[in-house]
Amino acid sequence: MTASILIQIFLLGIGLSADAFSVALTDGLTYVDINKKKSFFIAFVFGFMQALMPLIGFWLVEAAETIAGSVAGSNVGTIMSKIVCWVAFGLLIFIGGKMLIESIIELKKPEEEKTPKKFSIREVIFYGFATAIDALAAGVALHAGLSNTVTVWLHVSIILVLTFGLSLVGLFLGKQIMKLLKGKYEISGIIGGCVLILLAVWVILSHYLGI
Length: 211
Known about the structure:
The chain has 211 residues and is mainly alpha-helical.
């Protein structure tokens, strides 16, 4: 394993963690009861998911090659990369659209009827999955020469650590923006929903235009 490969893995990890950073920023904006323990939980879930998906992608391609040869492995990788980007797009549009609509409705309610958004373990896990699903395709890149069956474990660990760190930064920034908005969580939710919708568009553009 050369320094060049490690640099490529580091850059891949930064690219993958951008999705998690954006959603962590949204969580910091919208959850009104975030504390240190919850922040670390969110960051770990996002890091774990961003590491798990490339690992699954790597082993799917490896299994296809073992069973049916290198051509089959290449075909599996191509099909998988096309499918997962649209699945990620759909999930992010759904989450972002739902958050945007709910926040607009909340903004119109009388003050006494408003219900701030609170931390939810189930929601965090779902967000982690939604932002990481497109990272399955990164497993194809790992299998194409960056990793082997031994080094892949180190490489996904690097991705986990990078995503964990950047997710914490996103949460911190989200909380600071919330403070600047003076606790107006409905506006924060509108911003968060827009961020997720833009992220969905970015997933498609980055896949087809190679941005």
